[in-house]
Amino acid sequence: MSFKYEFAKYIKDPGSCPGLLFHDDNALIIKDLYPKSLVHYLVIPTDKTLERPQEAFADHKFREKMEKYIDKAREMVVSNWPPNYAVPGGEIADYILVCCHSIPSMANLHIHVMTKDLCSERLKNKKHYNSFATQFAIRWNEFPLAADDPRWNQDYCKTLLKQDLVHGGINYGSSFKRLREELDRKRARIVYGKKYRSSH
User: Fold this and answer.
1) Which positions carry the signal peptide feature in this UniProt record (predicted)?
2) What does pLDDT average to in each consecutive run of 10 residues of the chain (200 residues)?
3) The pTM of the whole model exceeds 0.85
4) Contact (CB, 8 A) for 87 and 81
5) Is the Cα torsion angle 25, 30, 33, 34 positive or negative in sign?
6) How many separate domains does the chain show?
């Protein structure tokens, strides 16, 4: 079976899932094995599993059903944020991104619940960054998508990955190397927290 369908194995046998944090009949919560932020979890529903998020979360009852699992994953992000890490701009509870990719890389429906930093060492290219930093990532509060939202269209969604790299109000064009240098500086400021600020 292609890696694209890896989550199907976890849904069938949660105990086989590396990084499993929680599961019941409706959903799994796992650590992302390739995190793009310093804390990055996935909520994997056991229903509507082969639907695109645009379709699955057009169902209001299903969306409401998933809310408590997202809340649970948010709580996990907060509790697992290292206390010595700095938080850019406030409290960790306000520094959480909940989204779905408009064209998911994995076949089975899943929701990203993660810190907003996007400075994990696993974030290695333009596509990785733009998949979260542009409208390619459909924010949870945007569901259900309006009928005329262009992100129903896969060709449009693909163009979003090709946009210039923009971070902190600075346009890095297509230079992921320059952006990665800034993300590494940001990572240091977060990880070293007060120690970093007191020595710079």
Assistant:
1) none
2) 84 94 98 97 97 98 98 98 90 96 96 97 97 98 97 98 97 98 95 59
3) yes
4) yes
5) positive
6) 1
